[in-house]
Amino acid sequence: MNIYLTRLAAAAIAATGALCAHASADPDSRFASWPAYRGDDLELRVADGHTSFALWSPEAEAARVMLYDTGRGTPATDTIAMTRAEQGLWRASVPGELYGKYYTFSIRHGGRWLDETPGIWAKAVGVGGKRAAIIDLASTDPEGWDADRGPEVGHITDAVIYEMHHRDMSMHPSSGIVHKGKFLALTEPGTTSPEGLATGIDHLKELGVTHVHILPSYDYNSVDETNLPAGEYNWGYDPQNYNAPEGSYSTDPADPARRIAEMKRMVKALHDAGIGVVMDVVYNHTAEGDGSNFSLTAPGYFYRHRPDGSYSDASGCGNETASDRAMMSDFIVNSVKYWAQEYHIDGFRFDLMAIHDTETMNRVAAELKAINPSIFVYGEGWTAGDSPLPAERRALKENVAKMQGIAVFSDDIRDAVKGHYSRADDRGFATGKPGSEETVKIGIVASTAHPQVDYSKGNNSKFAYATSPEQIINYVSCHDDLTLTDKLAASMPGSTEAERRRAARLAQTIVFTSQGTPFMFAGEEIFRDKKGVHNSYKSPDSINAIDWSLKAANADQYDYYRGLIALRRAHPAFRLTSADDIVRHIVFDKTDVPNLISYSIKDNAGGDEWKEIKLVFNGSTEPREVKIPRGEWMVVARDGRIAPDGTLGTLRGGRVTVEPTSALILARR
Ligand code: CA
Q1: Cα separations (Å) of 198 from 163, 188, 195, 564?
Q2: pLDDT above 70 for 11
Q3: Active-site annotation holds for 351
């Protein structure tokens, strides 16, 4: 998530928080004695002719349930007092299975009744997400759902991840997609651009990615679901209801079952195409502070606070949640398990993961793996501000060795290859700026220890923080900050588009051949841009939507990306699974020229059919000569072209010229 995005909202929420400040050295110490409830029937259970409610709110003085006939705007048909029960619970039960009805809770706290809330476990909600809906979840399953499975993934390093926003992918008229901006967009086969090239799900299959990473798709706060024709856009890093899908991606947000059914249809269509679905999850903060469902359910408990009682703000969005407390930790674990089980989600990307504690993240990974060993978890190993959680407990990039089954984004390779993420004009290794060679090498070995990599020269991290390549996600751009296309335009003044496209190819070649797991932003394979807007979280579709006519206009770029992905997927040498294997098989050549890296992956690494792969990256604008060992080499990539089967010709070794801003990849059996 972008740290700039909600500065204004942050200020507003922080001000509200200060009003209810308690004067205490550690306002959060009292929560340690609160009872935790470990049952799986929280909030709603429909069974045996009864509808039962169970709200966890230890400090409430009273609690009640309101029943409604509609999702918004109508008066309650019934108000039921809840009874204090075990472990901080309040319970109520009514006869009848109330499918089709809606409900909210309200608690009395500090002598007054708080605003109504759908609770924190609403699995279906009315339009706008203010009331929970009682539906039969089984009725939302698409045909064949019981047999639905995502792709089997032995190691996360086998994945090729494609990050996309639902609207970016389908809103542009050139997408040829009917259900624009909807979950259903990715269920439409046979869609094409005006030039007749595949778009949508067919495009994903053709490109060869293994997983689609969808930006936040739980119910978020910002887009007005009652006014969809307004066409509002938001990334969705403003969580409202964590366990129900976002309504604006549904063809009818007023029908609580529809959004669930349509999201499942999307997952099934992708699974049928052999593609997994990773969901971006944002448990680290909520859109509202005092008005959030957490606050209206158990005031204070789910957040961290400063000594003056105000919200602490490691998210930069006005508050931060408290995964170090039992019920918040359970909430995160149970929520991702719910998405994995009910929606068959194949992976989770944790926003600002370092706001969470390593212990919670270890539970997340372990419990998800128990459901489906192919599920993987990765996240941003940083915060956007300071936190009361001690640094050694945070799920930071630097603490990734303390976590099992969790990967972190490598800002090392990102900034080293293309230049600093927020200084638009800064260049990197692939764009001719010297000084980042060693940091690119850190990326190549997936931040693991390697005798030929000097971490003291790293731009960002100064030590080998990963103990396995499975802990690293490599990338050069994502939804945050400038797209690669815009970054190259901003940092290469006076360049031609052809030169910038060469730079993009070199940059992504480094990412896709490095150890670790590659990740790319949707549309970069056709050189999409965002008109130079770096923080497009609420920019209109005219900025964010991918123009699919670029696929024909930039056909050679697309072919290169497709070849790069095919190369990686065909060769386990790029997907080693242990730090030992990296030390054993990767050998760097001595080069004393700036912006030049040459290395080999040797000895049939990972069981590869190729005995040796030689990779040379020339990030300078001059041709460079390198010495290649004698013998016959297949040319896999050269001068901005790629052939994953090594059919660009052969080369005898000796002195070889590597063209400016390009990768040379050779292989021999
Ligand atoms: Ca919403």
Answers
A1: 18, 11, 9, 19
A2: no
A3: yes
